[in-house]
Amino acid sequence: MAVAEAPIDIEALENEGDIAADYIEGLLDIADFDGDIDMDVEGDRAMVSVVGATLDELIGEEGEVLEALQELTRLAVHRATGERSRLMLDIGGYREGRRKELFRVGAEAAEKVKESGEAYDLEPMTPFERKVVHDAVAAAGLRSESEGEEPNRYVVVHPAS
Q1: Euclidean distance between CA atoms 60 and 78, whole angstroms
Q2: Which end of the chain is flanked by fewer CB atoms within 10 Å, N or C?
Q3: What is the mean pLDDT of the chain?
Q4: DSSP character for 92?
């Protein structure tokens, strides 16, 4: 018997986005950065994007500053709502570009596994990056799983059974 999933509470997600936007806006003001904030709900999570001016300092090398800002923003939302947040923060379109690149990486890994018939390990990735790769592998008709411990957790692509 299938368990029915709880309906997505759009109003609660929009509230998360508002709290996160206020928090990010405050950080931008303190750091004297320009940028406009866009909010949206995508699937079952709030999405907050900072767009506009050059914001490379807020992304960092390989997105580590962006990851830290996302965690701080999630903590601010949790503090305000008492609920765990899965909010996604993007700055300057970094995550969207990274998503496309990672989907390609996952598709290429799936092709290698189809050709060789052997499992293939990818480099360590963040949870966001692993999710995108898992989606790409599933779209290619194969299965994958995450192995290892943070921060060295990585994706293994397996041949079709």
Answers
A1: 24
A2: N
A3: 91
A4: T
